[in-house]
Design a protein that fits this description.
mainly alpha, cell membrane, transport, transmembrane, globular, about 400 residues, Growth Hormone, Chain: A, MFS transporter, MFS
Amino acid sequence: MKKLYFNYIESFTGLSKDIWYLSLISLVNRAGTMVIPFLSLYLKKDLGFTMNEISWIFVFFGIGSVIGSWLGGKLTDIVGFYKVMIISLFVTGLNFIALQYISSFWGLCIGILVTMSIADSFRPAVFVAIKAYSKPENRTRSVGLIRLAINAGMGIGPTLAGLLIVLKGYNLLFWIDGLTCIISIILFYYLVSDTKIKPSETRLMHQNLDKNIVYKDFTFWIHSVICFLFGMAFFQLFTTLPLYYDEMFQLNEFKIGVILFLNVAIIVVFEMPLLNYLEKRLIPVTKHIIMSCVLLTLSFLVLYQNFWVGVLIISIVLMTLSEMLGFPYTNKFALQRAKEGLEGSYMAMYAMSFSLAHIFSPKIGLTVIDYFGYQVNWLVTAGYGLTAVILSYWLHNRIKQNL
């Protein structure tokens, strides 16, 4: 037991204070993000929108995420991640506060589109910040620490949000979302200093670098498609799976919450020690990506058996293990592949892969369920994972050949 304790503590050592500050900011920000998990309920119960209207609002949500990821990458390469992060979170905070005063369908479509375009410009910038504030040998654990903070925040936020909705209604959530964005970026400004090398200086050192090289990098395109397919499968966790738990197994909201909390709990307790262990084994990044896709595929295949409730636990454990490998190591691959001076463009393309999945995953999943049922949807979703496994092997072989 003592050895396990020291191994756990060791997994957090050697990380820079700036990475710890980034994690603190991520925790505050994500704990305050209370509207998003309850957005569909707010749109349906408070504003009275139809399911079709709600689905289109979420399409605009996804489109805004794609625009924000692209815009954030471009701006990061021009003005640097520091300014992008500050401006993005501050303006996002103001937008969240303003959203509560919009009640029309098209007003919300445009409002959500603008909000997400600004909010998700933060994502490529924070990925570049990880590279700037961590040593190469610590980058995977740095990503893991920030993911741990985000997941801890995701565990706190929805729980408090549910209580606040019962006591005070939805409007207070918009204020909390907005103010925590502003508070977290004020913390960032005072705790984390900007890097000494400016983007303009970096560009001068790489004047002959092709600014469109990311779009010509075929190996990185393969990686991006893998990330898209991974997202197509994984994001079912937040859309179709809770409906499946309810309709097929008659689980109430509390029991569904317990299963989803299991995902967060496993990550918070085990992800950092696991990454610390794997980093010492010097296993190629692409092998971890292959394994994450295999686990994700299995997590949906087991759901085809729908007569035993225990299969839901097996599925969520497999999915969580996949997540613990998939997100840190796809992120690490993108950071390693990024050319000096163009990190923002590479991380934007990485983020956009998941943003596109945000658009298509719920739409396709819910449509398949509507026409063919849940079991067919699990086979389709496992198909995304299997295709990602095949592409991951291809990626692994291309990297071995230095392509």
